[in-house]
């Protein structure tokens, strides 16, 4: 399968430059894994606002009734204005990205789970919130996949992020190069089982949009489809929906299989349901039969390979299935 090369904005300290407050960088496995398959656009907001490397750490301060502030306790500097100014300049010059990987818990980059202090003087964190740059990403580009490198250690979150990143990038690439509705119909056909696994009612709504009974112009149909499509990937698929999509794929080939093979598939599906094997095991089995029967429809389905195969790693942070 051919894959688009998504553009991913990434926190620069995640392996690109030693720009952390302490003059270090962090090697991140997910970033390393993705490097051959995406175009990274690294950025360090704190360096961009002139804080230098190394520097005294900054923190998010959120006083009662006020907006979040970016404050440097050692110097007493409030750098909120600089950060907000940089952020709006950054977004005004940004070429359409396909996703973001941001530094976990950073007061600037962190999209969530960032320590927030109730006053400049208070030495203890009072709660959790967003870094200033991370918050702007979520506010300005709510339809894009955004993750932090910490959460990407969880297998489910990583798989969902990769699937969303590559599927939406594929859609955008085809939208840019397509000349009419035909390519949208092709996209929808390839994505059908993946959409079924994520959200069956959205799959039907998307099908209606491609049918275009209202006879909208092609650009309008692409726009309507794109708007609905991003909502499909709001959260990882429920495993019951995945099973439904697997059964659908299996249904197209089951009458050509021996009874023992059918039993084996159903047992494997049970193992998947019980979290004893990952989805990739079921997919591999389906694929082997699709190859045997030269089932082009199934082999062309995004569900069979939603992102480049080399990115598939079933290692996990240990938090288990979160869907
Ligand atoms: S977390 Fe963001 S601001 Fe901090 S060093 Fe990394 S890239 Fe720079």
Q: Can you walk me through this structure?
A:
There is one protein chain. The chain has 323 residues and is α/β, with parallel strands linked by helices. The strands form two sheets. Strands 5-4-3-7-8 form a five-stranded mixed β-sheet. β7 and β8 form a beta hairpin. α3 packs parallel to α4, α6 runs parallel beside α8 and α10 packs antiparallel against α11. The longest helix has 23 residues. The relative contact order is 0.11. Iron/sulfur cluster binds next to α2.
In short:
With 323 residues, the protein is α/β, with parallel strands linked by helices.
How many helices? Answer: 12
Order of adjacent strands in the largest pleated sheet: 5-4-3-7-8
**Overall pLDDT score:** 94
User: Based on DSSP secondary structure assignment, what is the total number of beta strands?
Assistant: 9
* Helix and strand element order: EHEHEEEHEEEHEHHHHHHHH
What Rg is obtained from the alpha carbons, in whole angstroms?
22 Å
**Unreliable runs, pLDDT <50, ≥5 residues?**
318-323
Bound compounds, please?
iron/sulfur cluster
Morphology call: elongated
* Main sheet summary: 5 strands, mixed
> Which class best fits the helix and strand makeup?
alpha/beta
User: What fraction of residues sit in β-strands?
Assistant: 5-15%
Q: Helix coverage percent of residues?
A: 40-55%
- State the distance separating the first and last CA atoms: 27 Å
């Amino acid at each position: 399968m051919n894959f688009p090369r998504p553009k991913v904005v990434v926190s620069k300290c995640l392996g690109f430059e030693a720009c952390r407050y302490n003059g270090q960088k962090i090697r991140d496995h997910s970033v390393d894994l993705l490097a051959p398959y995406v175009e990274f656009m690294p950025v360090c907001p704190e360096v961009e606002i002139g804080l230098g490397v190394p520097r005294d750490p900054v923190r998010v301060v959120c006083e009662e009734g006020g907006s979040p502030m970016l404050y440097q306790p050692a110097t007493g500097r409030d750098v909120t204005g600089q950060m907000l100014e940089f952020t709006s300049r950054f977004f005004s010059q940004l070429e359409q990205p396909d996703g973001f990987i941001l530094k976990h818990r950073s007061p600037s980059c962190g999209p969530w789970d960032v320590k927030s202090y109730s006053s400049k003087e208070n030495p203890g964190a009072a709660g959790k919130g967003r870094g200033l740059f991370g918050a702007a990403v979520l506010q300005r580009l709510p339809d894009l996949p955004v993750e932090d490198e910490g959460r990407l250690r969880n297998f489910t979150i990583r798989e969902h992020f990769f699937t969303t990143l590559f599927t939406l990038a594929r859609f955008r690439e085809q939208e840019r190069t397509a000349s009419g509705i035909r390519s949208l119909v092709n996209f929808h056909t390839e994505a059908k089982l993946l959409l079924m696994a994520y959200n069956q009612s959205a799959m039907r709504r998307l099908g209606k949009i491609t049918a275009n009974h209202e006879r909208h112009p092609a650009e309008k149909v692409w726009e309507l489809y794109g708007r609905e499509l991003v909502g499909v990937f709001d959260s990882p698929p429920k495993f019951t929906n995945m099973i439904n999509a697997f059964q659908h794929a299996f249904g197209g080939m089951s009458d050509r299989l021996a009874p023992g093979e059918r039993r084996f598939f159903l047992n494997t599906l049970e193992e998947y349901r019980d979290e004893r094997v990952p989805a990739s095991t079921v997919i591999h089995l389906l694929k082997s039969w699709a190859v045997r029967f030269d089932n082009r429809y199934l082999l062309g389905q995004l569900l069979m390979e939603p992102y480049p195969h080399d990115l598939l790693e079933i290692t996990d942070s240990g938090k288990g299935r979160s869907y």
